[in-house]
Each structure stands twice: as structure tokens, then as C-alpha cells.
Amino acid sequence: MKIDIEKINNMPDGERFNYLRQNKDLLIKAKKSTPDHADVCNFGIINIGTSRKSVEKEQDNGIIRRKVVANTSNWIDSQMDMILPGAVTKSLKERKSLIPHLHDHIHRLDAKVGEVFDIYEMIIQLTDLGLAKMGSTTVLVFETDIYKSYNDQIYNQYKNNKINQHSIGLQYIDIALAINDPNDNDHYDIWVKYIDMAINKELAIERGYFWIVREYKLLENSSVLFGANELTPTLMQAALDAPEKQIAVDAPEFREKKELNFEYIINNLKL
After folding, report:
1. Looking at the DSSP assignment, which residues form a beta bridge with residue 123?
2. CB 38 within 8 A of CB 227
3. pLDDT at 204
4. At residue 81, what are phi and psi to the nearest 5 degrees?
5. Mean pLDDT, the chain, as a whole number?
6. What's this model's pTM, rounded to 2 decimal places?
7. How does residue 54 score in pLDDT terms, banded at 50, 70 and 90?
8. How far apart are CA 159 and CA 66, in angstroms?
9. Cα(28)–Cα(41) distance, rounded to whole angstroms?
């Protein structure tokens, strides 16, 4: 069963809340029943800029290492899911070495873009994800050796800093429904507990609900055109033969809503 998220979001609030309550068990079963990944769609994607300080003379030996954000915690995505920090920890402990880096969620051997070097969670500043907000969050990071021999087109796009969206394939293990209705004690308690953790809580307030993902099984990470969680950029490009020159990609000159990043401009002035 595929959940029609657009249909749910277009319902009037009262009708939407009743539908969610009446069909919660069925919706949870649907989410858990089959592997899931982001639909290819655009929900106001934030442009993540590339750095003027990036590695300029990367050796073209057919292998480049990229550090990418596969998922950002505490961000409500286009499926109205908010993944909590640590939700993937158990999965990484159990099957980290089996998780591939693909393109476009194509589950075939010829869809691999390279060999995964490491997968881990780390804390990152929101500004490094392109948001004009203070604070930090936890992200899921893939460090992958991208092979030209696997896919020449994908290799060149990573090499030229053209890939800045990623998306995980996952299977839900533990999820909960939060509804902004004080008369619904069970779901409202969950709302109160988690709403202030959401980076983009205005989306949940607008729609009156969201899903909390407390645990999931990680199946793969894919480079995509548009991810359900748009805060999934490529963070670093690294020349394998010159690891000391690994440089993190800076935040863009212009934030969302065209706000100037003065720190970036000052640090990059040519004196």
C-alpha cells in the first residue's frame, strides 16, 4: 500500500485528524511493510552552494572520495517524517558493511556509484546545511569512494560538485504519530514531546501532524535529483592521494530568502 501523502495533506484539518486516527494502524503497517525511499519531487529545495576553496587539482585517477549527508535528523521531510538522532544506530551496528551507495534508488549491481568507505552519524551546524538558522543537528554521513569505472556520468557529476541531494532507502521499525489536537491525549502528548525538536516545525504546525521515526533499518543511500529530505548535500570532496588537502564545502553566499552570509563573504575576500 502506497500512502497518498498529498491527499492527506489536502484534507481539512478536522477530516485529516480523523482520517489519521482511524487509519493509524493501517498507515503504520503500510510504512513498515515494504522498503521505502523518497519520491523524486521538489518541495522547495534549498540550493547548497559549492566552495571557492574546494580542491582545485584533484587527481583524476578514476577514484574520488566524497563525504555526503544521506539524511538529516529533526527535519520534517516531504513524507511528514521526522527521523530522530540515533534512529539508525542499531541498524549500523548490525549491517553497516552491507549498505551500498547507489543512484536513484535503483537496486541493481550496476547502480552502485562506488564503494562505501564509512557510514556514521555526526553533529553539524545548521548553517553548514544551507539554513539561515542557529543551532545544530545530527546527520547520517556516507564517505564513499566514487569509481569512474562504475558510472562515468555520476563520477563526473560528483567530481564537478553537481550532486547535492541524497536520499536513504529504509524500512521503518518504530514510528509514532503526533497530532496537534489537545482533545486527543495520546497523539497530542507525542506532539508536545517532539514539536520543539523539529527544525522546520512550521510545516507540522501548518498541517497539524507529523510522524516520529524512532528507529529504522537502513537499506541504502542514493544520489538523487530531489530528495524528500532536502538537507542532504555533499559536504566534502577529497583527493585520495592528498588527504591533507581535504576541505569541507562552505555554506553558500546566499541563504534561503536571499539572506547574505556576511561571515562567508568576509572570509573569502581577496585582500
Report:
1. 138
2. yes
3. 97
4. -100, 135
5. 80
6. 0.74
7. very low
8. 9
9. 23
Q: Report which of 136, 126, 165, 138 is spatially closest to residue 37, judged by C-alpha positions.
A: 165
The CA distance from 31 to 175, in Å, is 9
Q: Helix/strand/coil (H, E, C) string of the chain?
A: CCCCHHHHHCCCHHHHHHHHHHCHHHHHHHHHHCCECCCCCCCCCCCCCCCCCCCCCCCCCCEEEEEEEEEECCCECCCCEEECCCCCHHHHHHHHHHCCEEECCCCCHHHECEEEEEEEEEEEEHHHHCCCCCCEEEEEEEEEEEECCCCHHHHHHHHCCCCCCEEEEEEEEEEEEEECCCCCHHHHHHHHHHHHHCCCHHHHHHHCEEEEEEEEEEEEEEECCCCCCCCCCEEEEECCCCHHHCEECCCCCECHHHCECHHHHHHCCCC
CA separation, residue 70 to residues 20, 51, 168, 234, 268 (Å): 28, 20, 6, 9, 28
**φ, ψ of residue 156 in degrees (nearest 5):** -65, -35
Q: Compute the distance between CA of residue 216 and CA of residue 213 in angstroms, rounded to an integer.
A: 7
Q: Estimate the crossing angle of helix 24-33 against helix 13-22, to 10 degrees.
A: 70
Label residue 268 left, alpha or beta by phi (over 0 means left) and psi (-120 to 50 means alpha): alpha
User: What phi and psi values does residue 123 have, to the nearest 5 degrees?
Assistant: -90, 135
d(CA 174, CA 162): 35
Instruction: Return the percentage of the chain with pLDDT > 90, whole number.
Output: 53
Domain ranges of the chain: 37-267
Which residues have C-beta within 8 Å of that of residue 112, sequence separation ≥ 6? 100, 101, 102, 150, 151
